[in-house]
């Protein structure tokens, strides 16, 4: 049974009876693996080989649309008869000249396809191509317009995202995702002005018309999930490893729109998360420095506070502080993270601008006290904001006791993956293997997963009461009925297997 997997060393730490079972938490073994990683620190290839097999817990900041590589989007578009547009920078639906059909274009214009993929991601920018024409920020966000024309492939996107996660030893994805059914009605809300005093009246008019729409959206997700599971042969002897990657969703409200449209997307998000347990929370996305997002930031927070009071079960993780000095006027650096925390955020996405906030230390102290985690996206912050290395606030958060998780943001657009985030954490931020383990554990501890946690104290690894003795029927039952606890136990088992395998392999080499 799952509960019997934790071994003597961990049980001794927890003052529970010592069992004659395989040791899962062994300080000496952890130190030996830490030494292997330290020795590989200056060799990115060697470090990646070591870290790829490391269990990495949850990816809590992963936009499904941006997680997909341009090559996948183009493959799906080709199957639907799409063509390369006249600019060579995007695609368009048929009909179009035969020579611009994607398959034909690829056969006759190799460098044109390279240019197209660069246009649909930040690949070129990251290698200096086109860097004089657009910032990483501009190239990143305009990529979405270019591949967004190929919508309606949610099932295939789920398969691709779960396969990438499985290859990276990520066991849980909390995907930012909206169903087509709900997105389609957001812009119909219009662009009339709106003030905080209008929130109650507008909500009353909106919510009445959307109950049936929520049911339709849930049915849409049923079909997409069933189709993706079938594609991976889940539940059969031929099931892919990706089937084991657990998935839940965050509804992503759109902030760079007129206020009535933003409010409608938030209302739909809260309604969906309240109605469907697969949606474990609500987020707010799009560029924080966009004109409307900047202008209406305080209004958006008021919307969120109003809806949070209506739907108290719905959890919030909010993009906040994805700005830096020089990118926006000083006023937009003063308090965005503090406002998001005050609005009820249980996690902060990015949080890159924390050092520029007026009451940064007070906000950090509150986040630490209340267990409000920050989702750190190293590649994203480097490419979009130019914030990396010593300029990144990762260590500022850790120094103040704020829980930290590593995440990918938009790994397809950014041409990254979770292993790369861990490599960057070691090389650019100086993190050690024990620190990476704490971050991996945090990726499940601060996830919005349903059920109770394995640890009542995720830092000191104090177990929940039902698992005070891991080798008991009560603990096995607890793990069976609580998804979060089960994934956390799986992570501990994964650490033990990873460490044992790395040391055995190192022994063979020597």
Structure overview:
This protein has 510 residues and is of the alpha/beta class. The protein has 3 domains: 2-40 and 453-509, no CATH class; 70-150, no CATH class; 154-445, TIM Barrel. The protein is 49% helix and 10% strand. The protein has helices at residues 8-13, 27-39, 44-52, 70-79, 102-108, 110-119, 123-126, 136-147, 154-167, 180-183, 199-207, 211-231, 259-275, 291-295, 297-310, 336-342, 360-370, 378-385, 394-399, 411-414, 418-427, 433-445, 473-481, 483-509; strands spanning 58-63, 83-84, 91-92, 172-176, 246-254, 279-285, 315-320, 347-350, 373-376, 404-406, 455-457, 462-463. The longest helix is centred in the last third of the chain and has 27 residues, at 483-509.
Strand content: 5-15%
Question: Low-confidence spans: pLDDT under 50, at least 5 residues?
Answer: 1-23
How many extended strands?
12
CATH topology type of the largest domain: TIM Barrel
CATH class of the largest domain: Alpha Beta
Number of distinct helices: 24
Strand order, largest beta sheet: 1-4-5-6-7-8-9-10
Radius of gyration: 23 Å
